[in-house]
Amino acid sequence: MTKAEFVTSVAEKTGLTKAAAAEAVDAFTGTVVEVLIAGDKIVFPGFGSFSVAQRAARTGRNPQTGKELQIAASKSGKFSAGKNLKGL
After folding, report:
1. What mean pLDDT do residues 42-68 have?
2. How many angstroms separate the CA atoms of 72 and 41, rounded?
3. Number of domains in the chain
4. 78 and which of 10, 22, 36, 53 could share a cystine (Cβ 3.0–4.6 Å)?
5. What confidence tens digit (pLDDT) does each residue in 69-81 have?
6. Which residues have a Cβ under 8 Å from the Cβ of 81 and sit 6 or more positions away?
7. Which pTM was predicted?
8. Longest dimension (CA), the chain
9. For the domain that residue 41 is a member of, what is the CATH number?
């Protein structure tokens, strides 16, 4: 499903115009990004949670040359499915 299809579905289910539904979807995704950048977690009981995953620095290998290289530590957004989504 594309973002446009998702916005259309939200508009149909809520009775909003497509423009208003697009604003709501953009506000939701923007808020999730802001919260994760701040290092917090968002929990939707039964649906799932958004959190920040920490990746430690590690040694990798260049597949073309076989030479070892250092991969820096990083952070990434993570979604964990809740009870209603598990086992689909």
Report:
1. 94
2. 23
3. 1
4. 53
5. 999 999 999 999 9
6. 48
7. 0.76
8. 58
9. 4.10.520.10
